[in-house]
Design goal:
Elements lengths: L3 H56 L15 E7 L9 H17 L4 E7 L1 H7 L5 E6 L8 H16 L5 E11 L2 E10 L21 H76 L1
Parallel strand pairs: 1-2, 1-4, 2-3
Antiparallel strand pairs: 4-5
Helix pairs in contact: 1-5, 4-5
Length: 287
């Protein structure tokens, strides 16, 4: 039977862990509120801009801008957005598992496959696998800024326009609710076109300024904002997953403390009972 002192030491250890997980839950809850506000503010703009540019890309000539030019996907680049830290449940695991499945599918249809990473966890996992590792942006996802997204988008645009890749896909966790996130994979470049729309139903527009000038200004900004939106979605989903995980850990610690306390009381009661029996037995022997 364990020593009562050891049980009490274990109770104190679990109590210390419970305090840490409770504090982490409160921190994640505060960060989640701010992340949700930024994410919900960016989501309508990102979706509407994607719809507009999808429509324009369907009408426009592919040769008017390099980011509209569709090439056979021989060289594919996948940008994986994960967290920099753990202790957030299955958040990073879900992205890695989903990405692994998509990479197997892409590898069967393309000649070369390269991976870029926003976040440490995805990089640490895939760098031990037989994939070509490209750009790595670590420490950017904790505090998302538009300048970071602009830098990342600039590197991706450069890779596409230089012919280093024929398509770029973005994998990230989309925030659905505090208890639910959804891993999505979207084509970032070339700009997707609307599918299944009859050509006769497409109406062209009059452009002011010129069509080429407009695309030159809008398309890089669109890529930047899609990267920024993905990072905002990912950080909100990460805080939600961490808050849920820490709440579960705090609850489990509470249950463990209750079980250990009950067990310690039983051990203490057994020790007291044993001492009483020894005293009574000794008294009877003397009598």
């Amino acid at each position: 039977m364990p020593n009562l002192r050891d049980i009490r030491r274990r109770i104190r250890s679990v109590q210390s862990t419970q305090q840490i997980t409770k504090a982490m839950k409160m921190v994640s809850a505060a960060k989640l509120r701010r992340s949700q506000e930024n994410m919900f503010a960016a989501r309508p703009y990102a979706k509407k801009m994607l719809q507009v540019l999808n429509s324009l890309a369907t009408r426009a000539d592919q040769d008017i801008h390099p980011l509209l030019h569709v090439r056979p996907e021989r060289k594919v680049r996948v940008v994986v957005v994960t967290g920099d830290r753990g202790l957030c449940g299955a958040f990073n695991t879900n992205i890695i598992r989903y990405t692994s499945g998509q990479l197997e599918r892409l590898a069967a249809s393309c000649e070369s496959l390269a991976l870029d990473f926003i976040g440490r966890k995805g990089r640490d996992f895939f760098k031990r696998r037989s994939y070509e590792i490209g750009n790595q942006w670590v420490g950017r996802i904790g505090k998302v800024s538009y300048d970071d997204a602009d830098e990342i988008a600039g590197r991706l645009i450069e890779s596409y326009t230089d012919g280093k890749c024929d398509a770029i896909y973005l994998v990230y966790n989309e925030f659905k609710s505090v208890i639910a996130q959804r891993v999505v994979m979207e084509r970032l470049l070339p700009i997707p076109r609307l599918e299944g729309v009859p050509e006769e139903s497409l109406l062209d527009y009059l452009y002011e300024p010129e069509e080429q000038d407009l695309f030159e200004h809008l398309l890089p900004r669109h890529v930047t904002f899609q990267v920024y939106h993905a990072m905002l979605e990912s950080i909100a989903a990460e805080h939600a997953a961490r808050m849920t995980a820490m709440e579960s850990a705090t609850s489990n610690a509470k249950k463990m403390i209750e079980r250990l306390t009950l067990y310690a009381n039983r051990v203490r009661q057994a020790a007291i009972t044993k001492e009483i029996i020894e005293i009574v037995s000794g008294a009877q022997a003397l009598g």
